[in-house]
Every structure is written in structure tokens, then in C-alpha cells.
Amino acid sequence: MVVSGLLINILLERSEDVRKGLSTIKGLKIHDVIDGYKIVAVVESKTVGDEVTISQKIGKIDGVVGVNLVYRHFDEDEARDT
């Protein structure tokens, strides 16, 4: 399992739409929203490749300005892409 901490920067005026979009992504959990435009989230996935795919989905949501990986933890044997 891969556990990744993300900081997602969004446009303040699009925050409601972004949150709705994020709520549809399996494996993503929002932990905090700072100043209305910085979202602290955690992604749990089977592989690093899956985590990257989720990050790319987040980046495609209208109103997302940036997706920054802050932390990643994985067991090397379990997280290997197959």
C-alpha cells in the first residue's frame, strides 16, 4: 500500500466545484482546507503508479492550480507496479 500526502492548490472562486470533483476520486481523503484554497489530502493506493494516476486526475479538475506531493510512504514489495 502507498500512502501519500498532497497539498492541492485551487482557485478560491472554484472551491465548491473542486471539492465536488475531489469527492468522486476513490482513495482520496480531504483532511483540511487552509484559507479556502489549500487542500490537505491523503491518497491511499496499491501502487506508486496508481498514486500518480490519482494525482493526475486531481490536476485535471477545473480550478486546481497545482498538486504537490508532500509525503509518500510505501512498502517496496507491495507498492511495485505489476
Characteristic terms for this protein:
Alpha-Beta Plaits, 43% strand, 30% helix, alpha+beta, four-stranded antiparallel sheet, 82 residues, 4 strands
If you had to describe this structure to a student in words, what would you say it looks like?
By secondary structure, the chain is of the alpha+beta class. It has one domain: Alpha-Beta Plaits (2-Layer Sandwich). The protein contains 3 helices and 4 strands; from the N terminus they run E-H-E-E-H-E-H. It has a 4-stranded antiparallel β-sheet with strand order 2-3-1-4. The longest helix is centred in the middle third of the chain and has 12 residues. The model has no long low-confidence stretch (mean pLDDT 93).
Q: What's the structural blueprint in terms of helices and strands?
A:
Elements: E1 2-10, H1 15-23, E2 28-34, E3 38-45, H2 48-59, E4 64-74, H3 76-79
Antiparallel strand pairs: 1-3, 1-4, 2-3
Provide the low-confidence segments as ranges.
none
Kindly, what is the distance between the CA atoms of the first and last residues, rounded to a whole number of angstroms?
13 Å
Give the C-alpha Rg.
Answer: 13 Å
The overall pLDDT average reads: 93
Kindly report the CATH topology.
Alpha-Beta Plaits
Tally of strands = 4
CATH top level class name: Alpha Beta
Percent range of helical residues:
25-40%
Sheet with the most strands, sense and barrel status: 4 strands, antiparallel
- Derived from helix and strand composition plus strand pairing, the structural class reads alpha+beta
Q: Rough shape?
A: elongated
Portion in strands: 35-45%
Order of helices and strands: EHEEHEH
User: How many separate helices?
Assistant: 3
- Described by its quaternary structure, the protein is single chain
What is the CATH architecture assignment? Answer: 2-Layer Sandwich
The CATH superfamily title: Lrp/AsnC effector binding domain/regulation of amino acid metabolism (RAM) domain
